[in-house]
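Notes from hallway chat w/ T.B., transcribed later so I don't forget. T.B. wanted the structure written out for a chain they're using in a teaching module, and asked if we could keep both sequence and structure tokens in one place. Agreed to drop them here.
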Amino acid sequence: MTTQKQLTKLEQLQQQHNGIRFIRSYPILNYIKTLSPTDRQLIELVLSYQDNGQPFQMKYETIADILNISYQTVKNRVTKLSKENIIITNHKSNFNGVDGGSSTKLSVDLDVLITMIETPAESKPASTTEHTQKPETILVAEFEQPITAEIKEPTKKPEEVKKVQTDPKKALMLERYKSKFYYSKAGDTMTPADFHSLTDRRFMDLPKVTSRVIGLPADNFDVFWSKVQELKKDLLVTEQAHQ
């Protein structure tokens, strides 16, 4: 089978499963710092229809299936992007005129999106001081040993306190975590899909990983980071066993 035929077959399978052949990708959206990876995926999905002149009236359940996230996450992302005027929602009740019901059409305001790309300063969170924390600094103090009369050694000068910066990867992940759960409240929890989105699906193949990450807090980064390190150790052991 030629590469072209393989691609065609893949597109056919995608069309049958999700009703869409492919989703457009716009890496330039990374310039908008307030957008989480899930935000960008949702915008790209809507634009895949909008760029072809098709109305986007997909159910939230279908969006969740395509993007591998929960229904509630889809709802939260649409609400957030609507407040930022990036996504426009057009809700109609009794759309079929007989049995009742409703439909919601989503569209992307390209003018707002392009403005946010061209003026990066405006794409930063409004209250940067409140929501952006500096990387933690751990102070490690070293003390001299007590001197007794019997030893009679010259007194040592205390060494300077050392500042040990945390892993830069942790600081970067903290920014992604805060961006993803920017609108979360105390006590909110993340879904396995949220976890895999933050960790770039690195741990998808670990056994029972879903049950191990479900219910992780969306307002406590240290607990999330601890779980990432735990799974990383498991992953290294698994990889070494297959070498």
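Follow-up for T.B.: The beta strands are 87-93, 102-108, 137-140, 162-165. Might be a good example for the class.
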